[in-house]
Amino acid sequence: MTGRRVSVAVVGGGVTGLVAAFRLRQQLGADAEITVVEAGSRLGGKLRTVPLGDGPVDVGAEAFIARRPEVAELLVELGIEDQLVHPAGRQPLIWSEGALHPLPTRTLMGIPSTAQSVEGLVDADTLARITAEPTVPFDWDASADIDVASLVGSRFGEQVVRRSVDPLLGGVYSGLAESIGVRAALPALAAALDAGATSLTAAVTAALPTPSPGPVFGTLRDGYGTLLDALRAAARPHTILDAAATDLRRAGDGWWLDPIGHVDGVLLAAPAPDMIRLVAAAAPRLAAAASGIELASSAVVALALPNDAGVPENSGILVATGESLGAKAFTLSSRKWPHLADREVTLVRASYGRFGDAAVVDNSDEQLIAKARADLETVTGVSTEPVDVFVQRWHGGLPQYAPGHLERVAAIESAADGVDGLEVAGAYLHGVGVPACVASATTAATRLAARVAV
Ligand SMILES: Cc1cc2nc3c(=O)[nH]c(=O)nc-3n(C[C@H](O)[C@H](O)[C@H](O)COP(=O)(O)OP(=O)(O)OC[C@H]3O[C@@H](n4cnc5c(N)ncnc54)[C@H](O)[C@@H]3O)c2cc1C
Questions:
Q1: Which of 38, 190, 369, 437 is deepest in the core (most CB within 10 A)?
Q2: Residue 175 is part of a domain; what is its CATH number?
Q3: Residue 147 and residue 401: Cα distance in Å, rounded?
Q4: DSSP three-state, residue 239
Q5: 106 C-alpha to center of ligand 1: Å?
Q6: Which amino acid residue places its CA nearest to atom 35 of ligand 1?
Q7: Residues 175 and 110 in one domain
Q8: What is the residue range of 391's domain?
Q9: Cα(446) to centroid of ligand 1, in Å?
Q10: Phi-psi region of 385 (alpha: psi -120 to 50; beta: other; left: phi over 0)
């Protein structure tokens, strides 16, 4: 190392940006100047923990896939592994045709492996169609990508798409089977089909993960805010809030970026449309490669209800598309998570907004609260007045992994590769979940650290 201090900018203070700042601190050392610039008034992006009722509650992401190692490992690295908790394992439900049904089992993102798994949820004709599906000739184009609705609809029919697949894709991507491509969302299914599965039923069966004994989800006892605080404390970045990074341009060996000035390297951890705006002049190929990625907005209405409100003993309720109900899902948080079960209130999150339905997110707080209460009453019969409420809007909440997403990402990464001292990371690349964001941040920060270390 020479005596010069390395300086890097991280654009975007969501979990991707904060993990990147932490990795840069680990790899560049205590003297490096690491600046996180965040357009909003707080760090965390789509992770946000607020007080509700008698304690904290997450109003953005509320969990992570526990089968991926990234978050649990990060908690250990940050010394907050005692925060890790898992769900109680209660049954989730689906609201369809005006009634509650158990969530189908042995499905891949709601795509059934047998007719039996969606019995009761779809009609007899659809069940017969699923049973007969292996006998119907199947053309799968191993060189192409299609949307999930076209694949599932053509083999199993519309009811499976609307009642089983849409509710699950709505949960992960705020998406619809029409807005999500098979290859990025269901890589194991695509692999089984590419390998020559002769039916969708056979491909789903081959792609189903072997049941593992561990819990599927995890979260933090005191909310994701604990992770954000620990990341910030460990990364010790200079933080600029309420300031969108602009005017990115080459400056000698490094970059110029407002409002920071000259830096040796830049890590872009902002959502795709913001990243595109920022690099349009300095890296037009990168901007063009990311231009097809659309976003879905959503809103979360968190309700704290009296404990005697009669909330059902289920972890949550997903809603089929085409229902008159406005909500796309309810998380019955106090039932789902044992650490929330003995609070003085019963916590429920109602979620609104699927891809193409951004208007609902612009409803007033009063409208969204009224909708949440009415929808909860329709689905569960619970009409009790909440003791506390929080409304959170997520404009441009989740990127849609449309057909062709994998090629788009390859083009983005190849374009970014050609731009010295600039890296990209975030939910629009290799997965929208928090573990994928942690992985993406780690990869980008490691590459940038190797480039700028002197
Ligand atoms: C309602 C909801 C529920 C979810 N639930 C889960 C879940 O249960 N489990 C799970 O694993 N995942 C979940 N996710 C997904 C996950 O939360 C997100 O994908 C992840 O948090 C994205 O993190 P990020 O840092 O990449 O992006 P973001 O959180 O979007 O952060 C990017 C930041 O960049 C800032 N920014 C943009 N442009 C600029 C600029 N020019 N200059 C400076 N700053 C800029 C933005 O203000 C923002 O703060 C959920 C998402 C939503 C919306």
A1: 437
A2: 1.10.3110.10
A3: 9
A4: strand
A5: 30
A6: 12
A7: yes
A8: 295-399
A9: 21
A10: beta
Q: Give 193-231 pLDDT, tens digit per residue.
A: 999 999 999 999 999 988 888 899 999 999 999 999 999
**Alpha-carbon span 145 to 157, nearest angstrom:** 19
202 assigned to some structural domain: yes
Q: Which of 181, 207, 233 is the last residue of a domain?
A: 207
Q: What is the pLDDT of residues 128-139, one digit of tens each?
A: 999 999 999 999
Q: State whether 112 and 190 are in the same domain.
A: yes
pLDDT tens for 72-129 read 999 999 999 999 999 999 999 999 999 999 999 999 999 999 999 999 999 999 999 9
Are residues 347 and 408 located together in one domain of the fold? no
From 163, 182, 207, the end of a domain falls on 207
Question: Residue 235 maps to which CATH number?
Answer: 3.50.50.60
Counting DSSP H helices and E strands in the chain, the numbers are 17, 22
Provide mean pLDDT across the span 163-191: 93
Tens-place pLDDT, residues 321-372: 999 899 999 999 999 999 999 999 999 999 999 888 888 999 999 999 999 9
- Other residues' Cβ atoms within 10 Å of the Cβ of residue 418: 10
Residues whose beta carbon lies within 6 Å of some atom of ligand 1 = 11-17, 37-40, 45-47, 60-64, 244-245, 269-271, 274, 278, 298, 300, 394, 397-398, 426-427, 432-434, 437
Which tokens is 325 given? 């109900």
**Looking at residue 306, what is its pLDDT?**
98
Same domain, 352 and 410: no
Query: Are residue 326 and residue 280 in the same domain, yes or no?
Result: no
Q: Give the number of the atom of ligand 1 that is nearest the alpha carbon of residue 46.
A: 29
CATH number of the domain to which 340 belongs: 3.90.660.20
What is the atom index within ligand 1 of the atom nearest the CA of 298? Answer: 1
- Strand 295-306 and strand 388-399: the pairing is antiparallel
Total number of domains in the chain? 3
Q: What confidence score (pLDDT) does residue 191 get?
A: 97
- In terms of domains, do 157 and 40 share one? no
Cis peptide, bond prior to residue 259, ω within 30 of zero: yes
CA 59 and chain centroid, separation: 13
Average pLDDT over the chain, rounded to whole? Answer: 96
Instruction: Name the pLDDT band for 3 (thresholds 50, 70, 90).
Output: low
| Each residue's pLDDT tens digit, 369-386 | 999 999 999 999 999 999
Would you state the structure tokens that stand for residue 312, as one six-digit string? 């059902």
